[in-house]
Amino acid sequence: MRALLLVDVQNDFLPGGSLAVADGDQIVPVINEVMGKFDLVVATKDWHPAEHESFASQHEDHEIGHEIDLHGLPQILWPDHCVQQSEGSEFPPELDAATIDHVIYKGDNPQVDSYSGFFDNDRRHDTGLNAWLQGKKVTDVYIAGLATDYCVKSTALDAIALGYRVYLIADACRGVDLQPGDVTAAIEQMEASGVVLVNSKEIE
Predict the structure, then answer these.
(1) β-strands 102-106, 140-146: how paired?
(2) CB-based contact 11:90 (threshold 8 Å)
(3) Most buried one in 66, 120, 156, 185, CB count within 10 A?
(4) Domain 2-202 CATH class label
């Protein structure tokens, strides 16, 4: 059984959003095109409380992009984004969301960020994604979404560690590239761990 896993395809990560990924909107038609080729489609959503401590707005003496120690973990400070129930947290209207079978919410603990769709960054909280996939007898996971060098990478690496065959749909992802080369490095790290890069046109 194979599943399409959509990572954080939300308004705030698209052009015009508070944490926009360059060309992030270009992946939406690609995703719509491949959705029907999968047995199951599951999506993750960043789902932050307004006071989430990964937001630069919660730290008077720090700016967006600064890295701090947050309860023992390195944390890049982001603009407020994907706040629960906000327009920014929603799927874009162009996405064929009716095809999504299940939604996983992550990042709802204000004290720890959650890049991966499977665990928070401290790996103490399990989102339930693995149990859901296991319950559906999924063996192969195809990943698309935002952003390549953060949530997509973390999700893919965890999926490999959990024993799935993992494929990254390269033309259905975009990255932040906070430091030039971050996206390339993320892809290399995923490939080194066993993630297979594919193009949407190759999926049957």
Answers:
(1) unpaired
(2) yes
(3) 156
(4) alpha beta
Per-residue pLDDT tens over the stretch 142-174: 999 999 999 999 999 999 999 999 999 999 999
Cβ within 8 Å of residue 83, ≥6 positions away: 48, 49, 50, 52, 89
Q: What is the pTM of this model?
A: 0.94
Q: Name, in order, each residue with C-beta under 8 angstroms of 39's C-beta and a sequence gap of 6 or more.
A: 1, 2, 3, 136, 138
Neighbours of 43 (CB within 10 A): 24
Residue 124 to residue 122: CA distance in whole angstroms: 5
The residues annotated as belonging to the active site are 8, 106, 151
Query: What tokens appear for 48 in the block?
Result: 């932050």
Which residues, 6 or more positions from 181, have their beta carbon under 8 angstroms from its beta carbon? none
**84 backbone dihedrals φ, ψ, rounded to 5°:** -50, 135
Question: What is the C-alpha to C-alpha distance for residues 113 and 88, in angstroms, rounded to an integer?
Answer: 17
Contact 116, 158 (CB under 8 A): yes
* 3-state SS string for 84-151: CCCHHHCCCCCCCHHHCCEEEEECCCCCCCCCCCCECCCCCCECCHHHHHHHCCCCEEEEEEECHHHH
* Domain residue spans of the chain: 2-202
Instruction: Please report which confidence band the pLDDT of residue 115 belongs to, taking 50, 70 and 90 as the band edges.
Output: very high
